[in-house]
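Hi team, as promised in this morning's meeting, here are the two structures we talked about. I've kept the exact order from the run log so nobody has to guess. The first one is mostly here for context; it's the second one we should focus on when we meet again. Sequence first, then the predicted structure tokens.
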Amino acid sequence: MKQKTIQSIILEFEPKSENILPALKKTNAIFGFVGEKEAKIIAEYFDVSESKIFETTSFYDEIKTEKQPEILIQICNSANCTVNNSFSIISEVENLLKIKAGSSASSKFKLEEISCLGRCADGPVMVVNGKIYERVTKSSVHGILGEYI
């Protein structure tokens, strides 16, 4: 069933190199990630190597290559957010949820440090399952995550 769905996704695009990224984004949006099976089918359709597909997916933070947990927490670690104490936000989330940034140990939560989201005037920025929170403080972390826990 999954393979058939992947086939239906890629058939929406002409097999031209400029359509690889849109096909990957759509696959990611539907499945939540682009796994090895999906990458192989996409590579064959676009007549490129699987490494080209994974090179493309690894460049974009929004495209995942493995199944994501129920709650994905992302915190910006770019210069402005760091100056505004994003690392203390990361530590607070780690302590609250008993997880480490970058670890896949929890099946329910995942905490990632991500690069700039272009909201530098409103940092530090935290994204939870796609919802953006700006000017996050250590004290606001509990309230924000309380909506998801």
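And here is the second protein, the one for discussion:
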Amino acid sequence: MTRIPVLKTYKLLINGAFPRSESGRSLPVLDKKDNVLAHVAHASRKDLRDAVEAARAAQPKWAGATAYNRGQVLYRLAEMMEGKREELAEAIASVPFEARAQARARTGAASKRARSSTPSLEVSTAIDRVVHYAGWADKYGQVLGCNNPVAGPFYNFTSPEPTGVVVCLPPDGAPLLGLLSLIVPVLCAGNAVVTLASEANPIPSMILAEAAATSDMPGGILNILTGPRAELIPHITPHRDVDAVHAANLSAEQNAALRAGAAENLKRVTVREGVVFADNDACNSPWWIEPFVEFKTMWHPVSA
């Protein structure tokens, strides 16, 4: 008797829990032989709204935690990913390179270097990137902030503070490394994140969601949605409770949709073009944190 495997259905990560989409829909993910590998939830506009509400409620406590503690939480996430190294590499390899290459081409991010990157190397680089930004959590303020020379008996200094709720839109072609490269600079600054998984291969993102849920990451700080971006992107920048957007290697249509929505409310939108996520020199920089902090300048009288 031939055993028929029970296919896994990956749910959404919202507020530290794994709810099904309120739409009741799911999408198949195909393997190299066009067999159904798993299913993922088809997130709706209401799921996006629920994720943003969860992020908004959780963000103040995350921002109020010590920078050292935020670094510890991110490092713990890297530890949990290390335990899922083989599962993550297998998930990246399960979707054929051609599908990922087509996704890169759609977003204008095709790269010869991508073909030479193995799934195992992508996982290693992704884990290292989380560790890297965990180290920046209690240091970026010293780099981005400053003491300001002023004329008068005052001590004047500028300090960075988190922006709030940030939506991250990683490219389709880098299912794990692209996702983490966008979210960890945002998280280490004290922001809460809502992110869309790769459409071409959402499984690594959902394995990351499972790692986050079993780590020290507070519920609501990292929320991951799966599904067609065409349905969700038009609702991101018009959302009044979203403070900023961090995206990379988007298609011209997706970029235009984000910009059009931000024109109404002057939301900060950072879209990085032509990023090669395997390039540590380009991606491991405190300037990837800078767009997602606000700068507060304080004056304090100097005693005689």
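Starting points for discussion:
The chain is about 45% helix and 20% strand.
The radius of gyration is 20 Å.
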